[in-house]
Amino acid sequence: MRKVFYIIAMSFCLLIQFSCKKILDVAPEQSIEAGNAIENDQDVEALIIGGYSIMGRGSLYGTNLLMIPDLLASEDYCSWRGTFVSYDDISLKQMTPDNADVTRTWTDAYAAINNANIVLENIDKVQDEELKKTLQGEAYFIRGIMHFELVRLYALPWGATPGNSQMGVVIKTTPTTTEDQAFLKTPRSSVAEVYKQVIEDLQAAIQVLPDDNGTRADKFTAYAFLSRVYMQQQDYVKARDAASEVIKSGKYKMNASISAVFANKNTDESIWEIQQNEQNNAGDANDGMATFYASLDGIGRADVRIDAGFIDTYPAGDYRSTGWYYEGTGRRPGNMYCSKWLSPYQNLPVVRIAEMYLNRAECNQRLGTTVGATPQQDLAQIRNEIRVGLDPVVNPGLQAILDERFHELAFEGTRIHDLRRLHLATGDFDWNANELVFPIPQRDVDASEKIIKQNPGY
């Protein structure tokens, strides 16, 4: 077990050092080849588990990938009231290339990608054929969604230039396990090229993942993310069809209570969530969703304050306007906070079946189709008298579906991505403003000897 832990730690350290004064300036004693230390099924699976662990950190789905997209679109929505300068700068759109959270999100995403690449390079060492396919699929899944999250944050959005030729991110499909590999300098690929790689990885994952993989990613988790990718590209036919695959699987259904998916773990509503408990979590003091969102006696820093004007946009009588928002009692009483994130030990839903219903409803509405169900039927899964205290919308138009989307998925890390897709501004910042794009960490630009180009405006 110590050997496996060392492999995981070593591969992560290699990625961390990608940003030193030389590309992955690895000390000789750290430059053993991980591939030579991986021998069997358990070693390869340990690397996959390591990948999930990295994705659960505060730098990724443990906090940043769920919170930062909302801070980037904070106008008339929320405000940052904490002391962490990195988050304050993100909320104000005043990021610099040495922003601590800009840097750690980039670094840890590539660490997870590296784990996935090491798995794929060593997949033939897995003797159990079913396990081999599952681990291979999980590796493609991790690599695909991490490139997707990176390109959405560190590049101008899809549609910003003809042919999406704007700079994307560095595509990594080979592992970094040796000193020679560490010194390779790779330029950024275009946004179009990154999306192509993401789609190929998710499609490859779908081909080999099982229908059910416990709390880890399965075929329908990959379909759900594929629907997200196609939505971001405004490819509404493919986004609709991928969402339909998830829905018609029959694995998932909306809970009757709006709070159940956040108050309980792995409910039928959740397609994939980050597993947390008292011993294993993103944090309860300086990281974690409850750390920043909660304002309760003894829980939370009350750093993300919810705009009361946004809460007022919910229809009168909507259970969500009271069930998901509350007046704080902790550090900053009297202000409004989001009750989706109340415990530092709760699981963190990353994608819910509600999003798939919303995707399919919007796509069918735009396309004039009724694949799987009508938009009215899909929207009624989310908005109905039992769940939210409102009657379903009869013959919903596109705006009604979008309104439902912004209300249902609030503070789950989707807002800036939806605004960009819909070409909507946040405050004075247009959907394709340079200020809404993260800078590439300066130390990575410098370490690559400017082969990795910086984003405009930095």
TrEMBL record:
Q: Which of UniProt's keywords are assigned here?
A: Cell outer membrane, Membrane, Signal
Family under the similarity heading:
Belongs to the SusD family.
Location in the cell reads:
Cell outer membrane
Q: Which domain of life is it from?
A: Bacteria
The reply to whether Ubl conjugation figures as a keyword in the UniProt entry is no
**Main location group:** membrane
RagB/SusD domain ranges (all copies): 346-434
Q: In its UniProt entry, what is this protein called? A: Carbohydrate-binding protein SusD
SUPFAM superfamilies membership: TPR-like
- Pfam families named among the record's database cross-references: SusD-like_3, SusD_RagB
InterPro entries associated with the record = SusD-like_N (IPR033985), SusD_RagB_dom (IPR012944), TPR-like_helical_dom_sf (IPR011990)
Task: Provide a GO CC annotation, any one.
Answer: cell outer membrane
Residues in SusD-like N-terminal domain copies: 87-231
